[in-house]
Amino acid sequence: MKLLLVVNPISGGIDKEAFLKNAITICEKYGINYHIFKTSGKADQQKLTDIINTFKPTKVASVGGDGTTLFTCTALLHSNIPMGIIPLGSANGMAEELFVNPKPEEALKDIIMSEVIGHLDMVQVNDNNFSIHIGDVGLNAQIVKGYDKDVNRGITTYAKYFIKELNSIKTFDIKIEANGETINEPGIMLGICNSRKYGTGVPLNANGNPMDGMFEIVLVKKMDVNILAKAGLSIFSDSFIDNENALVISTTEAKITFNQERTLQLDGEIVGAFSTLDIKIIKGAVKFITHSNNPYLKR
């Protein structure tokens, strides 16, 4: 077996060297041919593509957080090379969504041993932007700006910026064209979901399944800041987005139009401002190494 480890050295501010030392020991013990690729922020996509073409790995392990997972998936798009996740980032939301072992060494062993392969969907936005997790326009995109600058992480920090933005957010006009219908509704946020929860653990889409060939558009019409403040962090349960104040549409493609350019974030990264979003699902875009206890395989 030939194993390629794609490592983001700085994701989550976590030192990866101790894990890599253990990974090398495991590979050498069991005769696994390995190669380690570390991102540098300079032409990483092309460099990774070149290594995949020359090393020709049997399996690929993404070592980092959600951003590293998306980066690795994009490089493997439409290939027959399966990949797994080693959760070592500040946000490991997709790893949790996909029922990856939270212990990095155990996750590595699962990747090496497992022959159970799922077919992971990707969402394509405006031709050259991709998501495997959750993207949005509006409330959360604004929260991300503040959250990313904070030295602290986790649900408490997210809640701080959430309440701050919710006090100042204004509704904006949203036009959704999907499933042969056109919907015009004002809202405070539009979610583009291939899964259920953000990396912080905040749920947005109860219907999410990253292996069903569909994605969900979640239009959040309003939230009551007073109720949220009184409820505290307990509000971040599966009932966080209630049916009365949100519209959920399952589809394979959609066109979203805003009355002006709006900031878009995909999988925790701000990708730009757009007035129109053309969205489609890429069904089974990446082969994902998992296990037979993954409930998504049984739906």
UniProtKB/TrEMBL annotation:
Domain DAGKc per the UniProt entry, residue ranges: 1-129
Gene3D superfamilies, A to Z: 2.60.200.40, Probable inorganic polyphosphate/atp-NAD kinase, domain 1
Q: Which domain of life is it from?
A: Bacteria
Q: Name one Pfam family in it.
A: DAGK_cat
Could you list this entry's UniProt keywords, alphabetically sorted. Answer: ATP-binding, Kinase, Nucleotide-binding, Transferase
PROSITE patterns (alphabetical): DAGK
In terms of SMART domains, this protein maps to:
DAGKc (SM00046)
**Annotated GO MF terms:** ATP binding; kinase activity
Descriptive protein name:
Diacylglycerol kinase
Organism in which the protein naturally occurs: Aestuariibaculum marinum
Top-level taxonomy: Bacteria, Pseudomonadati, Bacteroidota, Flavobacteriia, Flavobacteriales
